[in-house]
Design goal:
The protein has about 200 residues and is an all-alpha fold. It is built from 8 helices and no strands. The longest helix is centred in the first third of the chain and has 25 residues.
């Protein structure tokens, strides 16, 4: 039985390494069609924050903030009603730069990543209380983003821009549809929110 534990540990390490290799291969297989080069949809700071945030509800809140920054960049709107503080600039950096096509692609990929995170948790731990909370948070953001992005269809004329925008809108609609399928909160669940 002692020999079995090291073998199992090596097998787990091998499987984890294989999963990472496949994930990297898939991530690099989709170069940005407009520029011919691969563009990361997250900044280095954002990638570090996502990596450090493991709880589903907090990770989805982080993806929402990241998506808000892309929507702000593409619509030329401020991400918040007030100017970002020095602390925010240090934590998040300046708004992401890029063409509208690149920013729409970023947004679509960010939303896709958030959806996949929720799906992964739903598969691993179907009864998790964090799933409805994460879906609601993401759907509230989707309800804010959709009216901002839909009018941009009229001006989306650059190569790939319309397709990237449509993918982002489709992802937002998918989130809103999923939120409609959530079960209603029971009075006990509502009461739990009030307790400290």
């Amino acid at each position: 039985m002692k020999n079995f534990a090291p073998r199992l540990a090596r097998l787990n390490a091998f499987l984890l390494l294989a999963l990472v290799a496949v994930s990297l291969a898939l991530a690099t297989a989709r170069p940005n069609a407009a520029s011919g080069q691969r563009r990361e949809h997250l900044t280095e700071q954002e990638m570090d924050m996502v990596r450090d945030t493991q709880e589903l509800d907090r990770r989805i809140a982080l993806f929402v903030k990241i998506a808000e920054r892309r929507v702000a960049a593409v619509t030329a709107a401020a991400p918040t009603p007030q100017a970002p503080s020095a602390k925010d600039l240090e934590k998040w950096g300046a708004l992401p730069q890029g063409t509208r096509t690149q920013l729409f692609n970023d947004l679509a990929r960010i939303l896709d990543e958030a959806i996949n995170n929720i799906d992964d948790v739903a598969v691993r731990t179907p009864g998790s209380s964090l799933i409805p909370k994460a879906v609601k948070h993401l759907s509230n953001a989707a309800a804010r983003f959709l009216p901002q992005l839909t009018p941009l269809r009229a001006n989306a004329s650059a190569e790939g821009e319309r397709e990237a925008l449509e993918q982002a809108i489709e992802n937002l609609q998918q989130v809103l549809d999923a939120a409609k399928k959530l079960p209603e909160e029971t009075p006990e669940q509502k009461g739990e929110k009030k307790k400290p």
